[in-house]
Design a protein that fits this description.
The protein is an all-alpha fold and 392 residues long. The protein has helices at residues 3-16, 22-25, 48-61, 68-75, 103-116, 120-132, 150-160, 177-183, 208-218, 244-260, 278-292, 294-307, 309-315, 317-330, 342-347, 356-377, and strands at residues 84-85, 101-102, 266-267, 275-276. The strands form two sheets. The chain has a two-stranded antiparallel ribbon. Strand 3 and strand 4 form a beta hairpin. Helix 9 (208-218) runs antiparallel to helix 10 (244-260) and helix 13 packs across helix 14. The longest helix is centred in the C-terminal third of the chain and has 22 residues, at 356-377.
């Protein structure tokens, strides 16, 4: 799910619960002051936690340690209930009913905090909250109690995996998250894709964004742990009793066909001409690789290498993170992606991380202080070890 989709879903959710649409659709003015630990310089009202989470996950995937301030900012966004909002302007103020929390921000933050380590309690609280708002069909909507959708259900599956519990056992009654995804999968006559969610009449419509997310979710993978699969993408095939794997295979076949002609997915915004959809193409690369290996994702991945630099520069940390995840899954080098160092560009949008040279310098200073004290006192010696954040 890209940032545009996240904001659109939030707007729809607010309208659905009876809040006036203009309050969400209009750009906030003035923009809130930006916290020092946040990645990106754009207004974080609708995507702060999401883009921060993607940034931390992407850096984890390339073994780059983020600044402590970036991790602390994300952890500080959590409410006492365990849920996360899209953005919490004043973390010192307790969350109340006026602050909208959502499943996507919560699930992404849980994955990010699990990846960086040291926040086990926060991750468990987030997952516990997600379980408490699971729908009867086994899935999740963007907001608690909202109709289940493929994107939200899939990102929550990633969060559930942090607890090392089989996703199929997380149920509301008899239904698991996989049941919800299967309910949103289309037959081969309709392309084998996934729908975002049923329309008012219950009809399912193929959605590439939802399909990219659902393929990864149906395969039981997450943004943190997604890896290239070893099953070649085949033509769509209807099964009498389809499994999540069957639905993932069909969704992957749909995506492969969708990118075959131009090398990318296409978006059609109301009132505008069709144009390349860079974010969803990056997500499709991850999905294609997760099912069929790096070869299956090579076409759209190469297209992104040639064409995504300007888009990423304009859209900031979430865009760089999506490209890093696509490069990682597709077997490309994130530090030389079409001539762009994605890791360097992402890191530059946030607080400066502690580098090895800085760390060594600080250690040397403390060693010299300790040596001086020891010499002056005539006894013993002083050793100073700095605590390191360890990955789980």
């Amino acid at each position: 799910m890209n940032v545009r989709r996240s904001a659109a879903v939030l707007a729809a959710a607010v309208v659905a619960i009876g809040t006036a649409a203009p309050a969400v659709a209009a750009s906030p003015s003035p923009s809130p002051s930006l916290p020092s630990g946040l990645y990106g310089s754009s207004d974080p009202t609708y995507d702060g936690v999401w883009r921060q989470s993607l940034a931390l996950i992407a850096l984890y995937r390339v073994h780059a340690e983020p600044a402590a301030a970036a991790v602390d900012w994300l952890a500080g966004q959590q409410c006492e209930s365990g849920a996360f909002p899209a953005f919490r302007a004043n973390p010192a103020k307790a969350c109340d009913a006026k602050l909208m929390v959502d499943t996507n921000s919560t699930a992404a933050a849980a994955q990010a905090l699990s990846a960086v380590g040291g926040h086990g309690t926060a991750v468990t609280k987030a997952v516990t909250w997600l379980k408490s708002v699971q729908n009867k069909d086994g899935g999740w909507g963007y907001t608690p109690g909202g109709a289940s959708d493929a994107n939200s259900t899939s990102v929550v599956i990633g969060a559930l995996m942090t607890q090392h519990t089989p996703v199929s056992t997380i149920r509301n009654g008899a239904k698991s998250p996989y049941d919800a995804l299967l309910k949103l999968s289309l037959p081969c006559a309709d392309g084998g894709a996934f729908a975002y969610q049923p329309d008012k009449k219950g009809k399912l419509t193929a959605n590439a964004d939802a399909t990219a997310a659902a393929v990864v979710g149906a395969l039981g993978q997450s943004m943190v742990s997604v890896k290239a699969g070893d099953k070649k993408n085949a033509a769509c095939a209807d099964a009498a009793r389809p499994t999540p794997g069957d639905a993932a295979a069909n969704g992957s076949a749909y995506l492969a066909k969708a990118v075959a002609k131009d090398g990318h997915l296409t978006s059609a915004l109301p009132g505008s001409e069709n144009q390349p959809d860079y974010g969803n193409t990056a997500d499709a690369v991850v999905a294609l690789a997760a099912r069929g290996g790096t070869a299956a994702a090579s076409g759209p991945l190469r297209w992104l290498e040639r064409n995504s630099a300007k888009w990423a520069e304009q859209n900031g940390p979430a865009a760089y993170a999506q490209l890093i995840l696509a490069a990682e899954a597709g077997g490309a080098d994130p530090s030389d992606f079409g001539g762009t160092d994605l890791v360097k560009q992402l890191t530059a949008t946030g607080p400066a991380p502690v580098t090895a040279s800085q760390d060594d310098s600080d250690t040397s200073v403390w060693w010299m202080v300790g040596a001086g004290l020891a010499a002056g006192a005539g006894v013993g010696f002083l050793l100073s070890n700095r605590n390191k954040r360890k990955r789980p």
